[in-house]
């Protein structure tokens, strides 16, 4: 799985003009770029360039314009616009096609629609706000504007159905490793889909799939990370936290975090596809919260079980050592510690 990173591929084949303008400013590294140079490089009129720059300004980009010198990019907004996420993104597939929405019901709904319309593997949908963010089992995910990463990634692995839950664990490792690397915060994984800081949930993963008979058609991998939320509604106040709350108000920027996350997710996804779950398992275990601890597993349509969480199996199921010495394999449940 090698080749040019996707932003280089875009450079060769060209994408929309605003993306190309942003790329030229990035390459200019804070120096002026003349309107003439821009219109020559992009093959469009200076009026068209001016129009695109005005649109970028409206989106929050700040330019200095100086007669005879041209334009200089002073500041980019921390809104994960598709152009920003894709600029310099070092991936082969993930994020090559990226869609940004100010507001959506759920990025999962959007990614499902794109998937059904034939979108390629690696397509990403990012929203600044979700008004009907989804959790598992019909639960909701609080996703106010400007405060988090609400993102869905389309994957099309050739995978047997029973292995699909492993992708939640692959994603959990990618998120933990990225956030630890970017912020130093010691996130822990609570099987199967929660990431916690100081015992509170900072991130949730929602893995949905469409399959025909035994074959996976696609997987919609939804990731929600509370980045700069300063507070939560009362029903979440005791159970939720954000990266900024855990860093005394310091929130990392969303756009670079998303980029790094896509790069890490792709690295681990390719590793998983090539070498199987055994290549990921030790990295998951290194960040697992409850191994060796007593837990309660509340299952849908099955009895609640209590025991000691002793690990995960090769499928990614949680292994629960029961009082009578038996080991139960838990495929899906909500876990309470103790
Ligand atoms: C999850 O479900 O944790 C999966 C969350 C996935 C969210 C992403 S955002 C992008 C993509 N698009 C979507 O529409 N969804 C995905 P679950 O394990 O069922 O947890 C849901 C529970 O977490 C809720 O019932 C609340 O108790 C709690 N919760 C809701 N919003 C939260 C938040 N922002 N932070 C922490 N906890 C939250």
TrEMBL record:
UniProt cross-references to SUPFAM superfamilies, sorted A to Z: C-terminal domain of transcriptional repressors, Class II aaRS and biotin synthetases, Winged helix' DNA-binding domain
DNA-binding region: 35-54
Ligase recorded as keyword: yes
Keyword Metal-binding: no
Catalysis: reaction(s): biotin + L-lysyl-[protein] + ATP = N(6)-biotinyl-L-lysyl-[protein] + AMP + diphosphate + H(+)
Xref: InterPro entries: aa-tRNA-synth_II/BPL/LPL, Bifunct_BirA, Biotin_CoA_COase_ligase, BPL_C, BPL_LPL_catalytic, HTH_11, Transcriptional_repressor_C, WH-like_DNA-bd_sf
Family classification: Belongs to the biotin--protein ligase family.
Known function: Acts both as a biotin--[acetyl-CoA-carboxylase] ligase and a repressor.
Protein name as catalogued: Bifunctional ligase/repressor BirA
Lineage, highest ranks first: Bacteria, Bacillati, Bacillota, Bacilli, Bacillales
Gene that this sequence comes from: birA
């Amino acid at each position: 799985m090698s080749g040019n990173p996707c932003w280089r591929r875009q450079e060769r084949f060209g994408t929309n003009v605003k993306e190309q303008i942003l790329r030229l400013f990035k390459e200019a590294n804070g120096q002026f770029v003349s309107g003439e140079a821009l219109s020559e490089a992009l093959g469009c009129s200076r009026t068209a360039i001016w129009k695109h720059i005005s649109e970028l300004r409206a989106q929050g980009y700040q330019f200095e314009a100086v007669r005879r010198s041209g334009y200089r990019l002073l500041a980019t907004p921390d809104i994960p616009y598709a152009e920003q996420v894709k600029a310099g993104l070092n991936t082969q597939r993930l994020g090559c096609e990226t869609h940004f929405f100010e507001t959506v019901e759920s990025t999962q709904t959007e990614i499902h629609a794109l998937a059904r319309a034939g979108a390629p593997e690696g397509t990403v949908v990012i929203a600044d706000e979700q008004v009907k963010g989804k959790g598992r089992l019909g639960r909701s995910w609080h996703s106010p504007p400007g405060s988090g990463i609400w993102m869905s990634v389309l994957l099309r692995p050739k995978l047997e159905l029973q292995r699909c839950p492993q992708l939640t664990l692959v994603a959990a490792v990618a998120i933990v490793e990225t956030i630890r690397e970017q912020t130093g915060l010691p996130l822990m994984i609570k099987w199967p889909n929660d990431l916690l800081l100081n015992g509170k949930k900072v991130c949730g993963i929602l893995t949905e799939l469409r399959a025909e008979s035994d074959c996976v058609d696609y997987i919609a991998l939804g990731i929600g990370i509370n980045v700069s939320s300063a507070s939560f509604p009362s029903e979440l106040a005791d159970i939720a936290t954000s990266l900024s709350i855990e860093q005394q108000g310091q929130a990392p920027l969303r756009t670079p975090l998303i980029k790094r996350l896509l790069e890490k997710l792709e690295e681990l996804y390719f590793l998983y596809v090539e070498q199987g779950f055994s290549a990921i398992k030790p990295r998951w275990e290194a960040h697992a919260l409850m191994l060796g601890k007593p837990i309660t597993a509340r299952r849908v349509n099955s009895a609640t079980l209590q025991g000691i969480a002793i690990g995960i199996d090769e499928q990614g199921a949680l292994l629960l050592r029961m009082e009578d010495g038996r080991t139960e394999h838990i495929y899906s449940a909500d876990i309470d510690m103790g």
